Amino acid sequence: MEVKSRYVTIKHHINGAPKQSDFEVQTVTLSLSLDPGSNDVLVKNLYVSIDPYQLNRMKDYSASQMASKYALAVLPGQAINSYGVGRVVASANPSYIKDDLIVGLIGWEEYTLVRGEDAIMIRKLDTTEFPLSYHVSTLGLSGLTAYGGFFNVCKPKKGETVFVSAASGSVGNIVGQYAKLLGCYVVGCAGTKQKVDLLTDKLGFDAAFNYKETTDLKSTVKRYFPDGIDMYFDNVGGEMLEAAVENMNMFGRVAVCGVISEYTDAKRRAGPNMLDVVYKRITIQGFLAADYMNDFLDFISKTSDHIRNGRMHVIEDISHSLESIPLAFEGLFAGDNIGKKIVQIADI
Ligand SMILES: NC(=O)c1ccc[n+]([C@@H]2O[C@H](COP(=O)([O-])OP(=O)(O)OC[C@H]3O[C@@H](n4cnc5c(N)ncnc54)[C@H](OP(=O)(O)O)[C@@H]3O)[C@@H](O)[C@H]2O)c1
After folding, report:
1. DSSP 3-state of 295
2. How far does residue 129's CA lie from ligand 1's centre (Å)?
3. CB under 8 Å to 312, separation ≥6 — which residues?
4. Does a structural domain hold residue 297?
5. Residues 297, 301, 306, CA angle at the centre, nearest 5°?
6. CATH number at residue 176
7. β-strand 340-344 against 316-320: which pairing, if any?
8. How many CA atoms lie within 13 A of 213 on its CB side?
9. What residues are in contact with ligand 1 under a 6 Å CB criterion?
């Protein structure tokens, strides 16, 4: 018995902003009979994560391709792995049986053959307490990124001030919610009025602004932080990082999660004033979600509790069908998504 699996791939390397026309759908045939002893698992993919970092994998070259095995280069024609939730359809792995739900590294494809040696990249989903998509968004790697970066890199204390960029996005909205729960003063920036309203009206941010409506970012940021910024959670880089550093307090911390404004333009680079960094003793630290895998259980337990008790909102933006993946991905760089961008490929 076999299944045909359609998958999304790139037609060629992408070095600027991605367009739908850069992608195509190809088909592969997979056998349902797996080699006994191989530990392989065949998964039918239900929900997959759409993430900005994938663009760096699609370039001719990016430093990220060397730095992490999760971000290796993608070649034209190759399947593209991504985080997601699926259902086991065949298993030669004693840890899984048919119809088990799993979460972990699957792909932008209808079925993923998880090889035995890669089976550590998936785990069984034993709970049906929350919608499955939550395990791709707030209870998935976006949540872990926010949790690891905010608590370990920013090292927040109650009452401190926090600035978050791309604040209505997947990681940003969660950072802001953790910061409010801790008792910080939180300001976010985002690219539309609808996003700004979401931050203040639903997520409890103290203030938010539309960065596309300001001509002078440094003075805008100053207006929202008259007493300075203690922590900046950076999702965008570029001029936003420069404006944040100029407004940081003594011993401020910058958690560099990502620099999306620089992903589509190789010439664009932040040039923060390094005198500020020296004299204000600012710490600027990059990090990867993978650095905080040891915190995963703690993160899941605390975050589930916040969601269960209505203290945290889960903000998702779900499209449907494998074919919608290129548009969903393109939209990340145009600011189309509100919250975690996910594509549902199939019903359970
Ligand atoms: N370090 C890690 O392990 C890790 C893990 C996950 C994500 N990340 C990084 O975290 C950042 C956010 O990722 P995410 O998954 O949460 O994505 P996201 O925020 O859900 O989606 C991307 C958002 O970025 C904003 N954006 C796009 N182009 C921009 C530009 N030129 N300038 C300013 N904002 C821009 C858009 O919102 P607006 O409408 O507000 O512009 C867009 O909706 C990215 O840099 C990503 O690479 C890092």
Report:
1. helix
2. 28
3. 138, 174, 177, 181, 303, 306
4. no
5. 145
6. 3.40.50.720
7. parallel
8. 9
9. 51-53, 142, 145, 166, 168-172, 190-192, 195, 235-236, 257-261, 287-289, 332-333, 335, 337, 341
Nearest atom, ligand 1, residue 171 CA = 16
Examine the pLDDT at 52 and tell me if it is beyond 90. Answer: yes
The CA radius of gyration of the chain, in Å to the nearest whole number, is 20
In a domain? residue 32: yes
What sign does the dihedral 320-293-260-213 (CA atoms) show?
Answer: positive
In a domain, 217, yes or no: yes
**45 and 340 Cβ atoms separated by less than 8 Å:** no
| Token pair in block for residue 153 | 């890199």
Query: In this structure, are 60 and 189 located in the same domain?
Result: no
**What share of the chain in percent tops pLDDT 90?**
94
Q: Which atom of ligand 1 is nearest to the CA of 52?
A: 47
Average pLDDT of the residues in 306-313 = 98
Residue 117 lies in a domain: yes
How far apart are the C-alpha atoms of 325 and 8, rounded to whole Å? 8
Task: List the domain range (segments joined by +) for residue 339.
Answer: 2-137+315-344
Provide the domain count of the chain. Answer: 2
Considering the domain architecture, whether residues 118 and 211 belong to the same structural domain is answered as no
* Residue (of 158, 155, 229) closest to 188 by Cα position: 229
Confidence band, pLDDT 50/70/90 cuts, at residue 277: very high
- CATH number of the domain where residue 62 is located: 3.90.180.10
What lies within 8 Å, CB to CB, of 342 at 6+ separation is 47, 48, 49, 50, 133, 136, 137, 316, 317, 318, 319
Do residues 179 and 109 share a domain? no
136-146 per-position pLDDT tens digit: 999 999 999 99
Q: Which residues pair with 30 in a beta bridge?
A: 3
